[in-house]
């Protein structure tokens, strides 16, 4: 992997016609990308009928002050495994800081301690919950980035926390100066 092409701390935006319906209009917050592979959390769609209260109740965590916000479709890998993408003002046992080219941007936690903290009102100041993740093996994402399928844009906390999931895809393209309505489903030949 070319270190200049490290996508950690960036967002991947699915191009129209990506060819995999699981990633149609996907926005992936890239949490790790190195020579061994890549891992990202989908933040561009929510799971119909699943809110945070449902997840907390299944884990037998008291609801406390936790709002019943939608849960994001994090990706097709391990869809029953939960993740919390959150601000850097909270850290638990397994929390990793996502460090991009501009430094630490957000954190990722995957154990129940962050959910318990959120429910108790002692969690991170900003967060979102997702089930599943998007994962790529060694060199797989690097290969995908050479073909029509993904556009990477810098990580942006306003896009991460200040935008509804349904609007993130368009907002991501707009952050790159691209009107998503003008994108074609196929590439052409010259």
Provide the structure class: alpha+beta
Radius of gyration: 16 Å
Span between termini: 29 Å
In which range does the helix fraction lie? 10-25%
CATH architecture: 3-Layer(aba) Sandwich
Number of extended strands? 10
CATH class: Alpha Beta
Instruction: State the major sheet.
Output: 10 strands, mixed
* Total DSSP helices: 5
Total count of domains: 1
- Overall shape: it is globular
What share of the residues does DSSP label as strand, in percent? 25-35%
CATH fold-level name: VC0467-like
Reading the helices and strands in chain order gives EEEEHEEEEHEHEHH
Uncertain regions: pLDDT < 50 for 5+ in a row? none
Would you tell me the overall average pLDDT? Answer: 91
CATH homologous superfamily title: VC0467-like
Description:
It comes from Sphingomonas echinoides. With 190 residues, this protein is α+β, with helices and mostly antiparallel strands. It has one domain (3-182): VC0467-like (3-Layer(aba) Sandwich), CATH 3.40.1740.10. 19% of the residues lie in helices and 35% in strands. The chain is built from 5 helices and 10 strands; from the N terminus they run E-E-E-E-H-E-E-E-E-H-E-H-E-H-H. Strands 1, 2, 3, 4, 5, 6, 7, 8, 9 and 10 form a 10-stranded mixed β-sheet that branches. The longest helix has 11 residues, at 165-175. It starts with 9 loop residues before the first strand and ends in a 15-residue tail after the last helix. The mean pLDDT is 91.
């Amino acid at each position: 992997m070319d270190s200049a092409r490290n996508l950690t701390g960036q967002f991947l935006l699915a191009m129209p016609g990506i060819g995999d319906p699981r990633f149609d209009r996907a926005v992936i917050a890239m949490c790790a990308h190195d020579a061994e592979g890549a891992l990202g959390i989908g933040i561009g769609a929510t799971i119909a009928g699943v809110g945070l209260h449902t997840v907390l109740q299944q884990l037998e965590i008291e609801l406390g002050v936790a709002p019943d916000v939608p849960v994001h479709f994090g990706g097709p890998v391990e869809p029953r495994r939960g993740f919390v993408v959150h601000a850097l003002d909270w850290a638990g046992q397994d929390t990793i800081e996502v460090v991009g080219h501009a430094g630490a941007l957000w954190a990722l936690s995957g154990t129940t301690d962050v959910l318990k903290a959120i429910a108790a009102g002692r969690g991170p100041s900003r967060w979102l919950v997702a089930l599943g993740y998007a994962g790529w093996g060694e060199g797989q994402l690097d290969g995908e980035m050479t073909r029509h399928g993904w556009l990477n844009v810098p990580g942006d906390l306003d896009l991460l926390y200040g935008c509804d999931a349904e609007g993130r895809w368009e907002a991501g393209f707009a952050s790159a100066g691209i009107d998503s309505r003008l994108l074609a489903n196929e590439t052409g030949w010259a």
